[in-house]
Every structure is written in C-alpha cells, then in structure tokens.
Amino acid sequence: MTEQTRPATTAAGAPADPSAAEKPAASTPAPPEDHLVTTLHSLSLPDGALDYTATTGTVVLKEEPEGEEYGRGAAYAELFSVSYVAQGTDAAERPVVFAFNGGPGASTVWLHLGLLGPRRVDAGDAGAPAAPPHRLLDNHETILKDADLVVVDAMTTGYSRPAPGQKPSRHHGLAEDRDLITAFVIDWLTRHQRWTSPLYLAGESYGTTRASAVAAHLMDRYYVAVAGIALISPVLDFGTIRFHPGNDRPYLHYLPTYAAIAHAHGKHEDRMLQDVVDEAEAFAEQEYPALLAAGLRLAPEQKQEAAARIGGLIGVDPDWVERADLRIEHMAFLAELLRQEGLMTGRIDGRFTAPAGNGNAPQMETDPSIDQLAPAYTATINQYLRGELEFTSDVVYEIMSGRVHPWSYKDFENRSVEVASDLARLLRKSPHTKVLVSHGYHDAATPFHASEHVLAQLAIPREDYSERIRIEYYEAGHMMYCHEPSRLALSQHLSEFVTGTEPDTAA
C-alpha cells in the first residue's frame, strides 16, 4: 500500500496552513515485492514422464543495515531465477543444483537452455548455426532427472536488478557478487525448506570463479558445505590467462589450445587431436618456458628454430611467430590462423569462423562463435519465459550486459585475481565436497592447460587431488554443449557427478 500524508485541518475542514493546500501529498514508496509465477509441466522421457513445477521470477533479498535494530531487513536486490522442482520425489533427500554463467555480465541463459534445463535451444554448431525461426526442444538429458535445478542471473543480467533506491554498482565486483549469490542460495534453501538436500553449484566461465568463491563463503560464513562444484570452462587464476607485460604464463597456457584449434582447421592432417594436444602440452611445459626466459640471450638461430617449432604446432607462419618474439597473444592468433583464407576464428569456440572485415587486422574484430550462437538463445529465452513459463516484465532480459563494468577486484590490488585458494580452503574444510572440471579443447577464452596447471597447484593433499577432482575434456569450445556429442557426454558426466555413480567408461 502507498500511504499518503494529509495536511492538518481546522474544525471547519480548511487547511491550518493555507499553503499546505498547494503542496502535493507526501508519499512513501511501496516496498518491493516478490514477483513469482509457478507453472506445472511434464517431460516425456524414455523411462516415463517427469512431472515438475517451474517457479519463475524475481525475489527480494533483504539485509540487516548496520546500526539498525537486529533483524530489521532492508530490501537491496531483486534477483531473477527459474526453479525447477520435480514432483513425486522425496524433496529432503533430492539434490539441488544452483547454476549460473559468468562474464562478468552474462545471464544464465547459456547453461539454462544449452545444457541443464528441461527445454533446450536448437542453436546449431560450428559450420551450421541454426537459422530462424529458432526453436526449443525437449531436453531428455536434463539434470532435472537427477536433481532439482535453480538457474539464477547475477546482478544487472537477465531480469536481476537492484531494489528501488539501491545502486547496481554495489554488486559489480568479485566479493560483492559472491555475497549476493550466497545470500540468494541461503534465501532459497530457507523458503523451500531444503536445508537437508545435497547442495551443488554449477558455473561456467567466470561462473566458475563465482562458484568457487560462493562455495567457500557458504562454508566460511554459514558453515554450509556443498556436496559438489561443477566447473565448466573454468578460470581460477586470472594471471594464467591475462596477457600483461612481464607475465609469460598465458603464452605457455594458450599454446595447447592454439594447437587444438589449428587441428580443427586442418593444419595437422592425418593426426589425431589428442596426439597434437599431447605434443603441444609437453612443449609448453618443458621447452617453451626456457625459451621465453632466455629472452635476448637466445641466439638468432635458436630463435628461428623455436619459431619454426611453434609455427608448426599452431599452424601459422614461423616468421610471424619470430616477429612476435615467440609470444602469441590469443586475439592476434585468432586473426592470423586463417588470414590467407580471409577468415577469423572464434574465441569462445575456435571451430567457428567468419569473414574478416579487415584482412590486415592485428586482432580478431568480433567473435564468430558468440555472433552465430547468441541469436538463437536470445529469441528462445524471451519466448520461453513469456510463453511457457508465463512470466512478464517491463525491463529487457539482458543476455549479455556491459553495464556491469567496471567490475571491482579491489581485494586483489597488486596481485593476481584468483579463487584457487578459496577452492583449496573449501576442500580442506569440507572432506565430502567433490569437484567436476569440464574443459573444451577449442576454448580460447579459458584455455584448458591454464586450468590444469592451477588445479595441480592447489594446496590440498595429493590423494584429494586424485580422488575428489574429476577432469573431463570435450572436442569443442567454451560452450561445449553446442557440439552434440560433447553435450551428451557432459550431461552424462554431470548426472554421474550429482548421483555419485561411477563413470560410464564405455560411454
């Protein structure tokens, strides 16, 4: 209700202050309220019908203001999510998976409609992106078979917005975003009385940074131990992928990905992908570090020999490698690999290509993989939310938003942004938490070798590394689920991870 304050009057009813009659009535804005819609659905699976509810919309999160009376919550955010809950199951024992994408600035439409939800987008794949009209298909491999699913959008993505009077920028940072998503998880478990359900987090890209930070914060702040974390296309230490002067780590870690992308475009004829990757990884770990460390001490003939070796591995002209001082930046590589064919390759997925607008461009000018996949996701999420899930809003659903920038990493001044220490601390504190790591060989956004390196350096016992961390690889890119064999494999791996069943080695 909106309360109005009326001016004081005399006994005759005239205003006590004549000027008060001319003043507009003061009002107190109505507090924000949850905006949720629940619909009932059924998915036909080979072994029978899966009945479920979908609860779609925004929930109001409240905080205890400093200095105020204990327990008096003030609204500070309205987060958008879709919660899928299977019917006819024991909710107390059924796992719950909270999923989010990354960016920062990406909504969770990608994991939602690409991999996890009961409906999935037909987006096509490299070389054959789907043409409009775009459509949704039943997802027979949905994680909903094994666990209830909550897909949530971070602040300023999807329909998530600050509460009236609040600024979105207060949530645009690693620590602030971590706290917001943690608060959402706590709120959801409480609202739905699911505190005893096994809890899983699934993140993609920066969502893996978020998942690691949130899982550690749940344990550190609330003593909530997650059963597992699925890290899809992870980045746990930004120092391994950020190209800055004096930091040679990205050049080493990207090289195996360059080799895999070169293989996808026929630069390694008659060779198996795994053989190419193994050779590139061995070079990146053994010879390459010494070559870069030598710098000006490297003799000209040694540099030429190294450039020839690198050029052969990644499918480019050795002279170009030598001019780059043996250091190949990823955006430059994606512009160079197929330059002679007039094409540039994708960053999110190096199997994708598009014509280059400038044949001499020093870097790729846009990402063909996002350009060719995003329209299908944009069209279907907007139709799906309004049509099948019956949710409407007067704001734009932000698929990808640049409005989250600048993104704050204030806690990491003068050091690399990383959450590997968070993940390691969580694993030391919570002995039952397990981790599933999923890498795409052709992912030039979060290269698999960087992730391998960070995971191998976690401050945990060796047996925990081998027994509690499962690492899988797929012949696709960052969003490996756009590649049908990889989607099926990843769905199977997630199912095994959540249900605790042994890996299906035959599959």
Automatic annotation (TrEMBL):
Q: Among its keywords, does the record have Protease?
A: yes
Biological processes per GO annotation: proteolysis
Identify one Pfam family in the record.
Peptidase_S10
Start-end of Low complexity biased regions: 1-21
Keywords, A to Z, come to: Carboxypeptidase, Hydrolase, Protease
- What is the superkingdom listed in this entry's lineage? Bacteria
- Enumerate the InterPro entries for this protein: AB_hydrolase_fold, Peptidase_S10
Q: Where is this region: Disordered?
A: 1-34
Give a yes or no for keyword DNA repair in this entry. Answer: no
For molecular function, the Gene Ontology terms on record are: serine-type carboxypeptidase activity
Protein name as catalogued: Carboxypeptidase
Per the UniProt record, the source organism is Brachybacterium avium
Taxonomic lineage from the root? Bacteria, Bacillati, Actinomycetota, Actinomycetes, Micrococcales
